[in-house]
Amino acid sequence: MNSYEPVPNDQLEVQYRNLVTAFPLDVQNLIPIHVDERTRYFRQNLGTVFLGEPTPQQAKLLQYSELLALTTILNSPTFKPTTQTPSDVARLKATAYASQYVTIRANELLGQSQLPEPVKQAIMMRGHQYALANLTRLSLNFNLREQLSSYLKDLKNRYGQLAAITCMVATASAGAGDVMAVSELTAQIGMAVGTAVAITTETTSLTDP
Fold first, then answer.
1. Rounded CA gap, 122 and 77, in Å?
2. Helices 63-74 and 37-51 meet at what angle, rounded to 10?
3. Pairwise CA distance, residues 187 & 185, whole Å
4. SS in 3 state form for the chain?
5. How far is CA 109 from the centre of its chain?
6. Which one of 4, 159, 183, 193 has the lowest number of neighbouring Cβ atoms within 10 Å?
7. Do residues 126 and 187 touch, judged by C-beta distance below 8 A?
8. What pLDDT digit, counting tens, does each position of 23-42 carry?
């Protein structure tokens, strides 16, 4: 696991960048260029495990989880207390509004897809759970004695949930067999793998010099 290094999928990366560059410039200018690339590449790799090489439409739909991840990049639930200038406050408000915009675009992307309605609703529910997990993470930010169980649950509900959504979208868009049952199963696999990779990544970052 420690030696695993994700690589970008060219088609999925192009679709991601196409979506981002279609945003209004005011939103684009607030998006950090190279933040969380490794976790995005990991989800790209994970999605292709269940889908294979995606069609352009499937590649576009797989960006749903990446847009959710982008909302958190823009409006992070973790921070260190600092003295803020009026300019800092204005930027925080701007990124929060940009995050709202990206959330709307993510929901549009899923809503316009050809997935069965029950599957859309199940994916959307996981998106809701991801948003609530960020709210919980914000409250944990104030807890200086965070318990290990809370830490692991946070990784599962945020990083694991995004991986679960990626797997669910991938298998649902492939359309094989009982779509709902198969996509729910792969979502559980994705959550377990996503959580494990998040733990490994954070452990490595703490031990690296």
1. 24
2. 160
3. 5
4. CCCCCCCCCHHHHHHHHHHHHCCCHHHHCCCCCCCCHHHHHHHHHHHHHHHCCCCHHHHHHCHHHHHHHHHHHHCCCCCCCCCCCHHHHHHHHHHHHHHHHHHHHHHHHHHCCCCCHHHHHHHHHHHHHHHHHHHHHHHHCCCCCCCHHHHHHHHHHHHHHHHHHHHHHHHHHHCCCCHHHHHHHHHHHHHHHHHHHHHHHHHHHHHCC
5. 14
6. 4
7. yes
8. 999 999 999 988 899 999 99
Q: Long-range CB contacts (< 8 A, 24+ apart) of 3-6?
A: 4/197, 4/200, 6/38, 6/41, 6/42, 6/44, 6/45
Question: Within the chain, which residues score under 70 in pLDDT?
Answer: 1-3, 143-146, 204-209
* 104 alpha carbon, distance to own chain's centre: 15
First to last CA, the chain: 19
**From CA 88, how far away is CA 3, in angstroms rounded?**
38
The rounded radius of gyration (Å) of the Cα atoms in the chain is 17
The model's pTM:
0.92
